[in-house]
Write a structure and sequence with these properties.
Elements: H1 3-32, H2 34-58, H3 64-68, E1 74-78, E2 84-85, E3 93-102, E4 105-114, E5 117-126, E6 128-136, E7 143-151, E8 154-161, E9 164-165, E10 170-174, E11 180-188, E12 194-203
């Protein structure tokens, strides 16, 4: 074989080997790239899913509103069976509503139905020991009310009529389960004799939620 032809074939063979190696070198990253990408995706998915599930499971405590709501807020209806009256008897209907107006201000509405008719009273107050006027429909005189907080579930009220304070406070207490309100009222009758009435209310369902 002539020397020139042998060199030409050798050059062609060398070029084929170099081309083949270059092609393999360019194709290897392409075939191997998906593998680390797939592994990374699985790891990332696992890392994200596991803590998210745990966090969701541990972040379902009681609603914040239920923890911070004033226990008096709501609508209360007289329970004549559990109430005790030393003088007179329970009215036909007695309801009381408390609203939290913010900043420690409470709005109390009392609705009483008796054999003589219906009476309404409204009181906007704070539990700071200061007198606040109670607005009563068809009342002969304005009554001042002083409210003090004994604890988060108990408050006491002093009533002033014609400038004269009541002898003892009226105590209102909310039960630990928040479903019963008890008011103990000690006053004097027309003969000046003291008597105590224990008025028990049941919390009514909250229809605003």
């Amino acid at each position: 074989m002539p020397e020139s032809r042998r060199l030409l074939l050798l050059s062609l063979a060398t070029s084929m080997v170099l081309w083949s190696g270059l092609s393999e070198a360019q194709q290897k990253p392409t075939t191997t790239r998906p593998r680390p990408t797939t592994a990374t995706t699985k790891t990332t998915a696992t890392a994200k899913t596991t803590p998210t599930a745990k966090t969701t499971a541990t972040t379902k405590p009681r609603p914040i509103a239920a923890q911070t709501r004033d226990p008096f807020v709501g609508v209360w209806l007289l329970n004549p069976q559990t109430s005790k009256y030393e003088t007179g008897g329970p009215p036909k209907r007695l309801s009381r509503t408390y609203e939290d107006r913010g900043g420690g201000t409470m709005f109390m509405t009392t609705d009483v139905v008796t054999t003589q008719g219906t009476a309404y009273s409204y009181l906007v107050y704070k539990r700071d020991g200061k007198p606040y006027p109670e607005a009563a429909v068809a009342a002969d005189s304005v009554r001042l009310v002083i409210v003090r907080s004994i604890d988060p579930r108990t408050e006491e009220l002093f009533f002033y009529v014609d400038g004269k304070p009541s002898d003892k406070p009226s105590t209102i207490t909310i039960s630990p389960d928040g479903m019963t309100m008890t008011q103990v009222v000690t006053v004097r009758n027309s003969k000046g004799q003291p008597f105590t009435n224990t008025v028990v209310y049941d919390r009514q369902p909250d229809t605003t939620r």
